[in-house]
Amino acid sequence: MKSTIKHIIHILPIIIAAILLYGAVTGKITKIISYTKNVTKDKSDDITEEETVSLPPGKINLIDNFRWTSKPMVDEYDPDNRQKFQVYGETVMEGEWNKKCEKELEKYRENIDLPKEKQGYVFNTDIVKNIGEEFELIKSKRKVTITNVTVNEVVDEKYLDKEKLLVDFDEFKGFLNEDGRFSGCNIRWFENNKKKNKENDVKLYWVVADINVKAESEWVDCSDIVPSLEYLYKDDDVMRLADKSYMMEGEWENQIGEDSGVVYVDLGLYDFSDINQRILGYPMRKGDQVTFQAAYVIPEEMLDYAYLWYECPDGGNEENVHVDDYYTNIYDVLVKVK
């Protein structure tokens, strides 16, 4: 036995030298070194330690380059000819990454004993970023910068585009005066979810965000890249929902400022034909970058409370992950409108 081990130790340098020589001659030295790293690497659950295959940016063959948990409906990804987002399936690599993110979230929450005032629909101030600051959407492996936000009284004609408005085009035009300003809106105000009063002719603003998104995932990620709208205020070290809320009434009801709040996106929508079923998922992978505008309609009194919100669903087992604990969702990002 000892002689066998001694023999192996003796010939091991010769084997390694032969492998390296083969790699140098065939041009496969990088792959051999990469493989050796993967074999010897300690497989940690820390998401910063994840090893992935390295594929070139741009067009790639999907079937040959990935293993799949749900196969794509197209064989290749072409950033110059994106298909509807739902055709790209899910790679094993993407699934493993999501599991690692969920484990990180669970680990983070296990180490925090939240007092009652920080439980539920309350945000951590750590997730608030500034206009012009680059931040990362960790689960989707994207880097985002909201480069500028403008608050306008007038809706420029360039935004009156049927393909880019997420509300009924004719009704939206009907809400505008000839000078491009919104006609007075009837609003029912609430405080702490209780009806307060009705106000007529409320002044509305057209708020436009310029957004840049860069993708870093090896796989084709189809997440939403358009932030929604939320109204919050800072209370010591937490962000709370604004006490005041509103509902548009009459012909305005269910038209503007409902749901995610976004009413215009100029990057092209990957949607179903029904205007009420539009999906803002945008397929991207490593090397892709897109700059676009998203617009929102906000009442004057709510401007100081308005935040653009990238919400990252918790995923995972809901019995183990408290999906209503927004304070501990380390993957959400908020950016104040003004």
Report on this structure.
The protein folds into 2 domains: 1-41; 122-313 and 330-336, no CATH class. Strand 12 and strand 13 (238-241) form a beta hairpin. Helix 1 packs across helix 2. It is of the alpha+beta class and 338 residues long. The longest helix has 25 residues, at 2-26. The protein is globular and about 60 Å long. The strands form 5 sheets. It has a 6-stranded mixed β-sheet, with no helix packed on it. It has a 5-stranded antiparallel β-sheet with strand order 7-8-11-16-15, with no helix packed on it. The protein contains 5 helices and 18 strands. The model is unreliable at 27-51, 271-277 and 315-323 (pLDDT under 50).
Summary?
This protein has helices spanning 2-26, 29-40, 62-65, 92-110, 169-174, and strands spanning 60-61, 68-70, 76-77, 90-91, 122-124, 128-129, 134-137, 142-152, 185-191, 194-202, 204-215, 228-235, 238-241, 244-248, 262-265, 289-299, 306-310, 333-336.
